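Researcher: Structure prediction, please.
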Amino acid sequence: MYDEEDLSLLDIEEELESPLDKIEPITAESEIPKPDPDEMLALLDNPQPQKRMLAARAFCDIEDSRATPILIRLLNDNCPLVRVSASYGIGRNPSADAVEPLITQLYRDWNGYVRKGVVWALGNCRDRRCLAPLADALRTDISAVRLWSASALAQMAGVSYESVVGAIPPLIEALVQDSVGAVRSNSAWSIGQLCKELPSNIVYATAIDALIQAFAEDKDLGVREDAKASLLGVGDPRGLQLIETLEQEGWF
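Model: Predicted structure follows.
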């Protein structure tokens, strides 16, 4: 179990924020030219950590497979700013070769911001090897990492049926037990995404039951709304009937 306070151990919270947190829709009027890939590739090996960080972050906007091997190496950088930026760069430029290094870093990195970036990257790798570490992070890590682990598990929908089945139990556990409403909300969303890939079997029925329970009983309005949205998105008859009944009876 990680300490919730490990996110405050550095006095650089603003710099360690996810570069994806502030992304806005790009319009014709606001579009900014992307950095030059060759220039950024050269900067990835710069001796100054600040320049390595900026170059790694540039690959959140640039898709270039040449950067991935260098970004993988930068997961071991001494500077956490570089490590977190490399994680996000890999997330935008995923590779099967990055999966094992990301898993290793998830288990050994002391910094929560780095682990947050790592779980996002693992989800984007869409690899069956990512399932167990993401599920483990959802159960044991700090809240910021659990939040992103819940979302990352939705990516198992693009991996295999077995991976979808494996992702459902930890998400149900988080939906029912996690102390943080945002984690429960993300778990409800991911369960809805995964249920769309399942036939009507026991795993599907158990997942729908968990969404119904969250919709009817969770103390957090946001969680109830996300559970409702997932039920509507899946279109399960039981869920739709319950939503209609409860709303007609004035529960919400």
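Model: Residues 244 and 250 are 10 Å apart (CA to CA).
Researcher: Thanks, that helps.
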